[in-house]
């Protein structure tokens, strides 16, 4: 497979996260390996780092999402919305070279492409709230 750009890598990563939502009783290492083999996912550092980084830090990421989702528990969100949110919050917390606004814009674009139209403003609102908190903490 040819070299992929970051947007394509994000789409693949959201697909992996979404798939994992349906296989929660399985080990993420096995899910990742099988998905890479079956779907010929390229060996990409961003995809690998993101996938395992999200699951290594899932409690923190989901807590951050839940804190900013206006009373919605993370488990009540659709699997696709949750996958997009997890990716973006992961980027904001752990991929320091990616500006927050880029992560948010990419999440909104992923939502626009794959999720329900009603999800987009909800996702955007949560992510902007997360961004505002992170910026406030950074200023302290």
Task: List strands and helices in order, with pairings.
Elements (H helix, E strand, L loop, with lengths): L5 H16 L6 H12 L5 H12 L1 H10 L11 H16 L5 H15 L4 H21 L1
Helix pairs in contact: 1-3, 1-5, 3-5, 4-5, 5-6, 5-7, 6-7
Q: What can you see in these coordinates?
A:
The N and C termini lie far apart (45 Å). The protein is globular, with a radius of gyration of 14 Å. With 140 residues, the chain is mostly helical. Helices cover 73% and strands 0% of the residues. It is built from seven helices and no strands. The mean pLDDT is 91. It has one domain: NusB-like (N-utilizing Substance Protein B Homolog, Chain A), CATH 1.10.940.
Number of strands: 0
Helix and strand composition category: mainly alpha
Q: Quickly count the domains.
A: 1
Q: Enumerate the spans where pLDDT stays under 50 for 5 or more consecutive residues.
A: none
- How do the SSEs run, as a string of H and E? HHHHHHH
The Rg value, from CA coordinates, equals 14 Å
Q: Architecture, CATH level 2?
A: Orthogonal Bundle
Distance between the termini: 45 Å
Proportion in β-strands: under 5%
Count of alpha/pi helices: 7
**Helix share bin:** over 70%
Task: Give me the oligomer status.
Answer: single chain
Shape label: globular
Quickly name the level 1 CATH class.
Mainly Alpha
> How would you name the CATH homologous superfamily?
NusB-like
Q: Which fold name corresponds to the CATH topology?
A: N-utilizing Substance Protein B Homolog, Chain A
- Describe the largest sheet: none
On the 0-100 scale, what is the average pLDDT?
A: 91
